[in-house]
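Example 3.2
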Amino acid sequence: MEIAAWMETLLKDIRYSLRQFVRTPVFTMVAVASLAVGIGANTAIFSVVNAAILKALPVRNPQELVMLTDPNAAGVSMGVSTGNRSLLSYAEFITLRDHNTTLSGLIAVQSEADRVQVRIGSTPPEEAHGRLVSEGYFSVLGVEPAIGRFFTEADAKSPGEDPYAVISYDYWQKRFGGNTSVPGSTIRIGKVALTVIGVAPPGFHGETVGDAPDLWVPMLMQPSIMPGRDWLHEQLTTENIAKTMWLHVIGRLKPGVNVARVQTEMDVLFRGIVENSYPPSLAPETRKRVMDQKLKVVPASTGAFGGRADFQQQLLVLLGASAVVLLIACINVANLLLARASARYKEVGVRLSIGASRWRLVRQFLTESLMLSALGGVAGLFVAWGATRLLVIMMKLTTERDSLDLGVALDLRVLAFTAAVTFLTGIIFGLAPAIRGTRVNLNDSLRESGRGSTTSSGRLNLAKGLVIAQVALSLLLVVSGGLLLRTLWNLQAADLGYAREKLLVLGVDGLTAGYKDARLTMLWNDLSDRIRVLPGVRGVTYSQNGLFSGSESADHVEVEGFTPQKDNERGSRFDTVGPGYFSTLGIPLLLGREFSLRDTAQAPKVCVINEAFAKRFFAGRNPIGRHVTEAFGDHKYQMEVVGVARDARDHNLKGDIPPRFYHPADQTMEGPPPGVYFEIRTAGDPGQLALAVRKTILAVNEDLDLGRARTMTETLARTNAQPRVMARLCTVFGIIALLLAATGLYGVLSYGVARRTNEIGIRMALGAGRASVVQMVLRETSIMIVLGVVLGIGATVGLTRLIASKLYGLSALDPLTIVTAVLILAMVALIAGYIPASRAARVNPVSALRHE
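Structure, written as tokens:
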């Protein structure tokens, strides 16, 4: 019976609340709109957090999966790693797969999907995303095919002898129209024909969040798919101890086995792998370094995601900003409810006088708040639906991938989050008005002319306190947005050390087309000559790592006349470059000369160093003619310094420029680079030359694998994508916060002016002019602004340090940004305050004196 009575009372409160909403449509629309923006923004950002960080893989029992590699890593690393290994080699995977006892299955996956050119039938080549996976991939993950079958370990015979492909459901629908006869079709990658044997189920995009491979290929096909590169075998020698680390390794726990037990076993197995894989003849110092390698086993229910840590940091900052916006919206609605509670002062007094309990009225007020919040939550879902898609598009730009498919959806977790936020929002903005609105003086409330001045003053003081909090929170967001905008400006204006305009960059891989050793050098020089004579080309050169490509090289160096004090003083970045590299890019040479065609493999070994290298290793000594020895393991390669180049930014816009040396393409420890990036200086728009350059290269050999031609401006735009998105979104949140704070200030002052109509009339009747009335209201506004700014600066000092790592060229407490933000906030607030002030100045004294 008690439950039935409680439900009946609740239904009455809901019906009463709905009638109140209908009676005050403007109030309802403003409140719902404010809440919809706040709840929708939080839902949109959380839905991306859910998809990128929290959501489990759509596989059988994902909680049983573990990774032996770093889920945040991606790409290919060649050399020697120390500490926790990010990726593994194929040989290491095979040993771990065949000798572990704690996992029911272990699979290897190419850590980053490749962009490949495929031919289907007689159609021209088209781009697709492919991934090499070990043959037990689908069975270990526990995925069933939509049609056909998957390749298994039974298909793994020897390299190149399982030419199969499994295509994704989306690719099947897009490229094959969902034709059920697709098994048996042929897809060609280069010169390799692959037979399609199955289609993955809908919704399955692999183990890596955000990637959406079009096809999966058995790993034993790697040497065939990537001719010239054999990443399946490794033969380490004293001169060459470089491993090709390119695989994520994922296992499934056996029943009753936990992560700790797997870690214990892997410590032993991997120690044995490291001891046995490197030759015993290594020097003690080298052997000590290579033995500093280990595995860290981690749960893998959410899969891998290259760059997840940085992506997560972005999302958490945005989630925090959207939470502040929601809090400001809650304060706005709370002020609206306080104003309405004042209008219902007599109603509450009557209800209390006839026997209603205060708790009963508080419950009714809270029901009204929760109903209002529920309407805001429903409207917020529509806002989130559109905002989520926009957010995914914007966040896609912040990754180095060509595609980012997060599979964002309003699933049960997101809906539960929205429901929880909606409920908490209703409580947050409803509790104070409910308690304050039911605190009345019965005698005052029942008088015909009573206005409850004491209680009204209390409500007004609470409302002013809430506005002060709004101003403080708004200042925090405006300062954050300003800092990120100035960071973006600084990054876009950063001095690269060379002109970014009229520069085209295009990657070319020669190894996959069959070029090796001396033929590679001949190819790069031949292509340079052909590109150089194209109309509109002023200069051309090439480099192995390219400009802002994400590829980087480093080694230990021994410098003549320098004795390192610490181990971290032994390393330097380096790049392999073509003739005329510095003059083509426009990097000034401070001393000596640059490379030319005479720096061949038979010529004396030379290098050019940058300023940072000269400062660290030569410390004021003239480096020209001195020697730098590149050391990799026990293999050493000595070069003579022939030039010092000005420091240039070619990989990162932030931070100090690291020491770097450059050597000619034909004079490297490993031989000519198998792939290079051509840097082409043009006379006009470089984008208009891209097609001509591609045709020129393919005319030499149509099997050459080309990357996407990008202007340097486009490349830097991709590099700055993350700070640009962060700046834009935080600026939007700041603008929304300003508008909400201005609305709240306007509402409080309007309510205050209405309450003081009689006082204003008396002042004007006694001779006060309109200017003095405006001044009186603006003085009140200024006090709230000042108090809010003081609190806001205090919050800013603490919280902006959270985005300090995202800043460039300024500190988190940049005075110019803070002062500008304060001025903008003050201007908006004063405009909001001037409207009710000017209205107060137009009060007719006679009408005001009759107001009571």
